[in-house]
Amino acid sequence: MKKSILKKQLDHLNKNNHFRFHMPGHKGSGNDFDIFTYDTTEIPGADNLHDPKGVIAEVQEKCAKVYGSEETAILVNGSTTGIQSAILGACSPGEQLIVSANCHRSVFGALALGRIKGVFITPEFDEVMGFAKEVSLDSVKEAIIKYPQSRGMILTNPTYYGTTSDVKAIGEFLHGLGKFLIVDEAHGAHLHFNKELPLDAIAAEADVSIQSTHKILGSLTQSSLIHFQGSRINRQQVKFFLSLLQSSSPSYPLMISVEEAVDQACEKGTEIFKIIIDAHEDFSKNQSPNAPISLYKGHDSDSGYDQSKWLFHTRGISGDLIEEILLKTYRIQCELSGNDHVLAMTGIGTTQSDIDALTGAIDDLNKKILSGELKDHAIIASPDLPTEKLIAGALKTEVPLWKGIYDEKEKCPLAEANGRLAGDFIIPYPPGIPVLLPGSRINKEMIAGLSHLMDNGIIIVGINKNRELLLLEEKGVINDA
Ligand SMILES: Cc1ncc(COP(=O)(O)O)c(C=O)c1O
């Protein structure tokens, strides 16, 4: 079939997608430059991302000035390669790195590629919503006491759900010991542009931060930035890995779009995010305490909540169902949903009428649920999901991660995996945090917990629909681990 991806996208956009509360942040409107016209290779005068000396170097300097970093580089393979290069450039094989367990899969990739030992910290969990809130300074201190040789830390901040940690305090503590702090700020390229938003990593004096300018600002998907300051991390080495891992044909449309996004954020970021923050505050202030769908106000931490994220807690009705109704009835496409929540992501392309559509739809749905109008739908009680316990107990490996990836594997039903070593990343969505890594020992509680999650419709990456997973081929199976 001809043009099947294009056709599918057009069909989807025409049918449903009038109010976009999902990534990317431009929401489908931006500077209409013709991608094909500007898509060239490194012809004379176009400069080269892998050794910028001309216009790309100038734009990178402009971005550094805007964000207040010492040096900034454009990324064309997403924050993913920025994160991987930062870790690979900062740690040598065999060294230890403290990792917040709610990290993105790119972090695990870097640990495996670089044969680096991850020291995992379990973040604080929101008891009601069941996802990671902040990584506490105390937990970083404990990790350092246990693993004093750790070279530094990578912290995810803000999280997908908008929660934040005290980056400044964690950074100061690590720096006091001569250790570095890398911040995966994939969800935070907008923070710098409004003072009411949580502090950005460069302002909080992190050594390196990596930002997906496509997620909430307006660049094209896959374009991102990496910022550097100070000398705790060898920049040359990080840049060496960027050249090694990124495409040798960096896309000019992606690079152009990063500059456009940063210019746009300078021009109107403060104003747009003020509208979004004020609307978030108004909506949560005016909401009835017994509204079945309520806006998450953030967690009680001094580091603040990123109110560009509109996270709704659904009580008595599934978040997945609310996401479906929002799309079918109100033409609102959200970013994601789960058993008891729906996440609507705003961005620099969000308008007042988008916000009005969203808040109007939620008010309407609340009325319908309370009046019993929606009672034919599957109204459910949120089951007690054990994800938090699974995460807290896991993320240990009995073989190095890189070895777990290379070793021979076999497929096995989950129910028969007790005592065996996982051969893959096992990741419940949400919250998207692995509960088993290649080389983690599986026990009975883990099997019961994962089965319970699947019984309740949670998607688990790494376990197929027949409930089978990959295991490492080991001799001598332990039966009652
Ligand atoms: C926390 C976090 N870090 C990193 C990434 C990777 O970013 P990118 O898609 O720009 O490669 C993501 C993507 O979803 C993410 O959520």
Quick recap of the structure?
The protein is α/β, with parallel strands linked by helices. It has helices at residues 4-15, 35-38, 55-67, 78-90, 105-114, 137-146, 167-176, 235-245, 252-285, 319-330, 352-371, 387-393, 401-406, 444-455, and strands at 19-21, 71-75, 96-100, 117-121, 152-156, 180-184, 208-211, 224-228, 293-295, 309-314, 332-334, 336-338, 341-345, 409-413, 427-429, 459-461, 468-472.
If you had to describe this structure to a student in words, what would you say it looks like?
- This protein is α/β, with parallel strands linked by helices and 481 residues long.
- The chain has three domains: 16-23 and 268-371, Aspartate Aminotransferase, domain 1 (Alpha-Beta Complex), CATH 3.90.1150; 35-263, Aspartate Aminotransferase, domain 2, CATH 3.40.640; 387-472, Ornithine Decarboxylase, Chain A, domain 4 (Alpha-Beta Complex), CATH 3.90.100.10.
- Helices cover 36% and strands 15% of the residues.
- The chain contains 14 helices and 17 strands.
- The chain has helices spanning 4-15, 35-38, 55-67, 78-90, 105-114, 137-146, 167-176, 235-245, 252-285, 319-330, 352-371, 387-393, 401-406, 444-455, and strands at residues 19-21, 71-75, 96-100, 117-121, 152-156, 180-184, 208-211, 224-228, 293-295, 309-314, 332-334, 336-338, 341-345, 409-413, 427-429, 459-461, 468-472.
- It has a seven-stranded mixed sheet with strand order 2-8-7-6-5-3-4, with helices on both faces. The protein has a four-stranded antiparallel sheet with strand order 9-10-13-12. Strands 1-11 form a two-stranded parallel ribbon.
- The protein is globular, with a radius of gyration of 23 Å.
- The termini are far apart.
- Bound molecules: pyridoxal-5'-phosphate.
